[in-house]
Design a protein that fits this description.
- By secondary structure, the protein is of the alpha/beta class.
- It has a domain at about 1-80 and about 200-255: P-loop containing nucleotide triphosphate hydrolases (Rossmann fold, 3-Layer(aba) Sandwich).
- It has 11 helices and 10 strands.
- Strand 4 (about 60-65) and strand 5 form a beta hairpin.
- Helix 3 (about 95-110) runs parallel beside helix 6 (about 150-165), helix 5 crosses helix 6 (about 150-165) and helix 6 (about 150-165) runs parallel beside helix 7.
- Bound molecules: adenosine-5'-triphosphate.
- Adenosine-5'-triphosphate binds near residues 15, 42 and 43.
Amino acid sequence: MTAPALEIVDLRKNFGPAEIIRGVNLSIEPGERHAIIGPNGAGKSTLFNLVSGMFKPTSGEVRLNGERISGLPAYAVNRKGLSRSFQVSSVFTNMTVRENVRCGVLWSMGQKYAFWKSIRSSKAVQDKTAAILAQVGLTEKANLPAALLPYADQRTLEIAITIAGGADVIMLDEPTAGMSHSETERAVALIAQATRGKTLLIVEHDMGVVFGLADRISVLCYGEIIATGRPDEIRGDPKVREAYLGDEAATLAEAAH
Ligand SMILES: Nc1ncnc2c1ncn2[C@@H]1O[C@H](COP(=O)(O)OP(=O)(O)OP(=O)(O)O)[C@@H](O)[C@H]1O
């Protein structure tokens, strides 16, 4: 039997006396697109940071393809095949678009940034970089400094960097935050295409994005998963509706139809 792509077992995280993640269990199959939703302050970013190795859990375990990764530093988790984006843009703004993507490609190939010059002409690196730029539609802007990209393109570049390493498990933290409606629609199509055949874990506030992309959804509330299921199951779950107040409940209901 194949191990889950990602398995979270009784994961807990305290900040001082406050228990922020309170016994999370979650199993995500290879190739599944899984969204985590929940009210502000529920612990979504904290959970992301725990899974990707940015934070060490207080207790519990995270497994990638059956192998324990909790406790490993983020770069080691990345080397094992899990790549994440950040809520706040992590693009190198003083480098060109191409250099940013190349950075992700090189990292996956185990090269350090210091070796850049000597291997800048490596055909494999160039080809992979060009393929990713084409995949996300940034070929024509490849020579621009990333700082000059419009906001939505910067977020697209961030997705490109995240997938550039060829990781099988991709985690995206609010990839469409701050985008217009049409930009969001394009981003959803891009994410679906760029993560085909991979496992995707996404944190997202936009319910249209969540219901458009996810095979399954987990709802995090005060550090606990209160429901996991297919979009239609989540839509009808009274616990979920209760967890969302006012406008968010209305948005959830709207997005579900
Ligand atoms: N490093 C930290 N030290 C102390 N408390 C923290 C730390 N990081 C997060 N918290 C607290 O943990 C709780 C959960 O925060 P987190 O950012 O994970 O929630 P979230 O669900 O991602 O919220 P949002 O939807 O607003 O981004 C919040 O109460 C926050 O103040």
